Amino acid sequence: xxxxxxxxxxxxxxxxxxxxxxxxxxxxxxxxxxxxxxxxxxxxxxxxxxxxxxxxxxxxxxxxxxxxxxxxxxxxxxxxxxxxxxxxxxxxxxxxxxxxxxxxxxxxxxxxxxxxxxxxxxxxxxxxxxxxxxxxxxxxxxxxxxxxxxxxxxxxxxxxxxxxxxxxxxxxxxxxxxxxxxxxxxxxxxxxxxxxxxxxxxxxxxxxxxxxxxxxxxxxxxxxxxxxxxxxxxxxxxxxxxxxxxxxxxxxxx
Length: 254
Fold this sequence. Notes:
The protein is an alpha+beta fold. The chain is built from seven helices and twelve strands. The strands form two sheets. Strands 1, 5, 6, 7, 8 and 9 form a six-stranded mixed sheet that branches. It is globular.
């Protein structure tokens, strides 16, 4: 009888483990990380793909001189999320000098064992911006920072189509003990309004202008190389092309 009980317990444990692996089969690296101690750096962002043949519009990062990346940025959470984020141990990361602009960004740390819990909460879409809400906010900010505030109002009513979602990592963090996991949603603009058509036209016009230094057009080969002439291209730009990362991260802001 004891042997039968033990066999039953072992079978139940194996079935539970198999079920866990099956449910998270696309995040096996994250599943392994949950079995470790320490912290996991997490961030979630929405990226906008504005494409012209094999060229993609990139915007200069104001806090990273000489670096260009897709329009978009980190999703923000709301007051409603505070309890759920506390439950997974989320602590915001705000680089010095950007405490106000990065307030409520979903960028920070959770205990490694709560990585899957953090993604589950995010996938419920409660207590945070949606991807389109994030893009509309970020576009208004980025266009103004790029010296084209006249275009910012065009972003207010844009609609978007989700192209792909990518969970990148967990990956080792150079020079740090923790690992890093990023989640990206990539969108195309829906050209169903005069404002959407005009914004796309103007951004492509600027990107093709050799005298424009804040908004540029990067070809597929540029993104694959990680460089356009003397400028660097951020690694997340590769997700405009596919779900495959090409280059390692740039050093984190401090």
